[in-house]
Amino acid sequence: MKCRKCDLKAAINMRQHKLALCKTHFLEWVCLQTERNILKYKMFSKEDNILVAVSGGKDSLALWDVLHKLGYKTAGVYIHLGIHGEDQYSTKSQILAENFASEHHLVLHIVNAKQELGKTIPEFSESNKRGKSKPCSVCGLVKRHTMNEIASKYNYDVLVTGHNLDDEVSVLFNNVLGWQIDFLRRQAPFIPAKAGLIPKAKPFCRFYERETAAYAILSNIEYIEEECPFSEGSTTIQNKELLNQLEHQRAGTKLAFYLKFLKAKKELFSSQEGDHFTDEIFSCPICGQPTPNPGNCTFCRMVTRY
Ligand code: AMP
Ligand code: FES
Ligand code: ZN
Ligand code: ZN
After folding, report:
1. Which helix (H) or strand (E) holds 80?
2. All residues with CB under 5 Å from ion ligand 4
3. Which of 6, 8, 225, 265 yields a CA-CA distance of 20 to 30 A from 112?
4. Is 181 within 8 Å of 275 (Cβ atoms)?
5. Using one digit for the tens of pLDDT, what is the confidence trace for 247-305?
6. Which atom of ligand 2 is nearest the CA belonging to 134?
């Protein structure tokens, strides 16, 4: 199959977009589509200082690469969660994030959970009923808090994450299954600043995982291929498998599900897109971050208790 734009052999065939492209035109297409998403969802501008949350995985490193190529002012943040697995998962991903930053002469902030909070994620999880079986909810809590903390400490204008379409659709599917109205209301490509929380953007939310992986591989970006050892058997992975079956039967299903949701949201919810809190907001007396209840926030309660 030939590239739609030139005579070269296509490097990737995207049935979902009825589009096949050679390496050069594919890499160009990813940059163009990212720029289009940033504009469409009014995420940020070339004047903004952008903090990219990098996990060392394909999505966030590809995103950092694209934003840098497009001329955005970026720096990264990597959170060492102390997840070892069989292969030193956290340490290995930190090295890959550091390599990317130094090759591109970009700043990377590193936060080490064990050194700065006193415990690794598995250790917090052990001693906390929140994550008795799996540490993922403790992990999410620490990541959200730390990203927000670094962003406000260094005055970044926006935080971006590498969430791709498969991530978004899996969460959406789960939220629809449980009719989690508040979560559905909050799910958006861009969440504006609210109550002391930095704006959050997901410029890759319309790219299939296959596309971000192809971008990383074709750009020779070294990324961590293994998944977090705790993600095995998770609902997210099960949802992704189910959705991939649907996609296989009808190409474009995942993208249509997501885009139609974003459209329906406007009719379903009268309040602002990405509305974070409907009730009163309090400020945590320890860290100063917003919390829905008076007193210490969930993060500070966890860190000070154990
Ligand atoms: P996940 O929740 O692991 O699917 O990751 C979603 C996004 O969160 C990634 O694309 C990154 O942007 C960000 N992220 C995940 N883990 C980390 C980490 N350890 N440090 C910094 N950012 C992360
Ligand atoms: Fe947080 Fe796996 S990355 S538990
Ligand atoms: Zn071409
Ligand atoms: Zn707090």
Report:
1. strand 73-80
2. 284, 286-287, 297, 300
3. 225
4. no
5. 999 999 999 999 999 999 999 987 555 454 456 789 999 999 999 899 999 999 988 86
6. 4
